[in-house]
Amino acid sequence: MAAFISVFLKKPKVAKTNKVFYLGDYYDTWWSDKITNWCKDHPGIHPDTDEQLSKSIITPFKKSVEIRDGNDLIEAIRYKLEKTYEVEIFSELNIDFSGIKRSTRFFTGVDQLMTGISALFAPIKKRSSISNKVTISCNIEEINEQFVTVLEIRHLNSHCDKEFDPTVILNGDMLTAKNEFNSLCDWYISAHFMNGSYGVFMLDSTGEIKSKELKEPTNDFTHKLIFY
Fold it and tell me: Do residues 83 and 109 both lie within one domain?
């Protein structure tokens, strides 16, 4: 959480207008003049009770730092993909969001996370002739005796047409994704390469890439984003 707060405080803000960036737009924040002046005029009352402030400032601000339910997550992913690749991506790829539970909820830098996710879709689009089926799910899992939120993006029946080498994988869009996921989540991939199936921690708290050959071959190229 401390790392997330640090990232949030560094999010782009517009000087003098106290705004925060969220999914392509700038919004006023808790420290804006609109909020502080309203609180002075309404002592002891939460500004969320004001419908206009709630809709135009408080709700967008909350959504910028927290995925509040499954619909929020789907909306954010769809928005960022369409913004990045235009609406044709949804006809080019068959993206199944049904694995995202309505009860999904976790804190993160939402805009930064979506930028990273959109980068993951660049190589998926390039391999769409192999398979255009993608599933996205979000569940609570137990890892190392700790319950965590796992956001999974699985490109079905897709593989890498190179021999396994983590230093080769981590370039271009994948490097962009890693930079965006830094301080937000761990990032694990599993995929079949020309010389076998491997699982790789591309990003974790140690900062080191860790890989291991899988005991069972996999037919899919899978990304797991793990939120503690």
Answer: yes
